Amino acid sequence: xxxxxxxxxxxxxxxxxxxxxxxxxxxxxxxxxxxxxxxxxxxxxxxxxxxxxxxxxxxxxxxxxxxxxxxxxxxxxxxxxxxxxxxxxxxxxxxxxxxxxxxxxxxxxxxxxxxxxxxxxxxxxxxxxxxxxxxxxxxxxxxxxxxxxxxxxxxxxxxxxxxxxxxxxxxxxxxxxxxxxxxxxxxx
Length: 188
Known about the structure:
Blueprint: H1 7-12, E1 32-40, E2 46-48, E3 51-52, H2 56-63, E4 66-69, E5 72-76, E6 81-86, E7 91-99, E8 106-111, E9 116-118, E10 125-129, E11 136-143, E12 146-150, H3 152-161, E13 163-167, E14 170-177, E15 180-186
Parallel strand pairs: 1-6, 7-12
Antiparallel strand pairs: 1-2, 2-3, 4-5, 5-6, 7-8, 8-9, 10-11, 11-12, 13-14, 14-15
InterPro entries: DUF1285, DUF1285_beta_roll_sf, DUF1285_C, DUF1285_N
Protein name: DUF1285 domain-containing protein
Pfam families: DUF1285_C, DUF1285_N
């Protein structure tokens, strides 16, 4: 980037699309221009130069050009690629809508940047257990290599919806969505 201190320069390079389609960041391979002082906190707050970005439209715009390569996160335009820090996941699933029940159930999540994601084969749910604290950390696949941390209140809703199912001789509690069963944890 000509001046890595200016997030506005990066914004000016984002192609203006029509409708809700996302820019094809997976097709862009610009030169790496270095890291910028931008961070996404675990709660989904975006920071620039240590200050929260208070304008949601700006955060939403930046969220359309994020890409993860390996363990690293970047904001990508057709001509620039800059590194940013992500504390956990770049998105947070903040609401849940439930339609139907049992194997016909559909779970629709809304992220902190207003993306709507329907859990299913293309958007699986997974739960990691912290080995030290044994605390669950649930995630929802949003798009290529990007996930949303499921907010604690939304996770509690999932736990309330959980049903038992035998998997490899063990009973697991989990939820159905889009014809897929997503284990949350073993039944005690």
